[in-house]
Design brief:
- The chain has helices spanning about 10-20, 45-55, 70-75, 110-115, 145-155, 175-190, 270-275, 305-320, and strands spanning about 30-35, 40, 80-85, 95-100, 130-135, 160-165, 170, 200-205, 210-220, 220-225, 255-260, 260-265, 285-295, 325-330, 340-345, 365-375, 375-385.
- The chain is α/β, with parallel strands linked by helices and about 375 residues long.
- It has two domains: about 10-85, no CATH class; about 95-385, 4-Layer Sandwich (Nitrilase/N-carbamoyl-D-aminoacid amidohydrolase).
- The strands form two sheets. Strands 4, 5, 6, 7, 8, 9, 10, 11, 12, 13, 14, 15, 16 and 17 form a 14-stranded mixed sheet that branches.
- Helix 1 packs across helix 2.
- It is globular and about 65 Å long.
- The model is unreliable at about 85-125 (pLDDT under 50).
């Protein structure tokens, strides 16, 4: 068992010692690494050394377990744990590319060629939320939504409880609810092929984007449904908005259960609506904001920074819980590495105008899983809640 009195300060001292002296033989990483700055460190060895600073002697590796026990302990102290077998202290972590298998099955056997970083399963009541950020050459659409979703499910769906995709991920020429049963069945079949069988949240936009809804699906079918309730100024009077932020849609609630936690489905600008309307938290543990997307600066709506500050951080501040976002970065715009797809407000009464990315304490457990399908690239970040 790991002593409770080991603190982040002790672990940082252990990291400094490893930087100076290296890692002894047979104490290197086997499955996971702790990422700190540009370095990779073996989590179990760090705990052994940190115990010396806390309690006077190194903790024998036989006295505690690797994997979940060590990784969850370090994650609670605020450290980032990554899956993979890169040799500690020798290389800087980079995004690992995974080619998504096409829906028709024609693809190289990516599972044999790659070992992508997978989230460390947390214990107890913690759930894993995977945000999917997509860089697309297209304008307004995702070219191969089912194929890309399948690739993400194959690699991030093995240990995530929920995968969050963007608003408008699917486009339809009919009203969205006429297509939902078909989509739910198709996506449910993909979910059934995964080990963890996560919930998948995605957006569907109807003709001319007059209907904008978010859906949550598991292997058994539709779980939750939400219609945009807070349109932008340009959308007011144009889109078919929900009459109330908490009204049911087609008999489904926008609040869904994820494990023993409750999540609220928000459609794009709804993230702003939570704080703008001064809504009270309806008893949810986190917010899932399905954002449409952002364009290169100077080529349309590129307000990713504004959205992070006032949409995600603003909603988190209002409801006192984490807010997660998924979006598409259109016209080949790369996904900004610093853009936070998970935000937890801890700045008290500070204005969101003054909020910086560095103020955000919520960091992904995995942030370097890259899945490609054709010309589109999905960056998957996994958070524990």
């Amino acid at each position: 068992m790991i002593p409770d009195n080991i603190t982040k300060k002790h672990v940082l001292k252990a990291i400094a010692e490893v930087d100076r002296d290296g890692v002894p033989p047979r104490r290197g990483s086997t499955k996971y690494n702790l990422k700190h700055g540009k370095g990779l460190y073996p989590p179990k060895y760090l705990i052994s050394v940190a115990n010396r600073f806390a309690n006077g002697s190194e903790l024998p590796p036989s006295d505690f377990s690797g994997g979940n026990e060590v990784n969850n302990f370090l994650a609670r102290l605020g450290f980032l744990i990554q899956g993979g077998t890169a040799k500690a202290r020798d290389v800087e972590p980079t995004r690992r590319r995974v080619k998504a298998r096409r829906h028709d099955g024609h693809c190289s056997d990516c599972k044999k060629k790659f070992s992508p970083a997978l989230p460390v399963r947390a214990s107890g009541s913690t759930v894993s939320v995977a945000t999917v950020l997509i860089s697309s050459p297209e304008d307004h659409t995702v070219d191969s939504p089912i194929e890309l979703m399948q690739g993400v499910l194959q690699h991030a769906g093995m240990s995530s409880d929920l995968l969050l995709f963007a608003a408008g991920y699917f486009k339809t020429k009919q009203r969205p609810w006429t297509q939902l049963s078909k989509l739910a069945a198709r996506i449910g079949a993909l979910i059934s092929d995964t080990r963890k069988k996560p919930i998948v949240c995605f957006g569907v936009d109807g003709p001319d984007s007059k209907d904008q809804v978010a859906a949550a699906v598991n292997s058994n079918g539709l779980l939750g449904l939400a219609r945009k309730f807070h349109p932008t100024k340009e959308e007011a009077g144009y889109i078919n908005a929900a009459s109330d932020p908490f009204v049911e849609e087609q008999g489904y609630s926008r609040i869904i259960n994820v494990g023993n936690k409750r999540a609220f489905l928000a459609v794009c600008n709804d993230g702003f609506g939570i704080s703008y309307r001064g809504l009270d938290n309806p008893g949810v543990d986190f917010i899932l904001d399905l954002i449409h997307g952002f364009y290169p600066k100077g080529e349309g709506g590129s307000g990713d920074v504004y959205f992070a500050k006032h949409g995600l951080a603003g909603a988190s501040k209002q409801w006192g819980c984490p807010a997660f976002g998924a979006a598409v970065f259109f016209k080949k715009r790369p996904v900004p590495e610093a853009w936070p797809s998970g935000v937890l407000w801890n700045q008290g009464s500070k204005s969101t105008r003054c909020w910086k990315y560095s103020d955000n304490p919520l960091q992904p457990v995995v942030d370097n899983l890259e899945v490609s399908c054709g010309k589109e690239i999905a960056i998957v970040r996994v958070y524990h809640v």
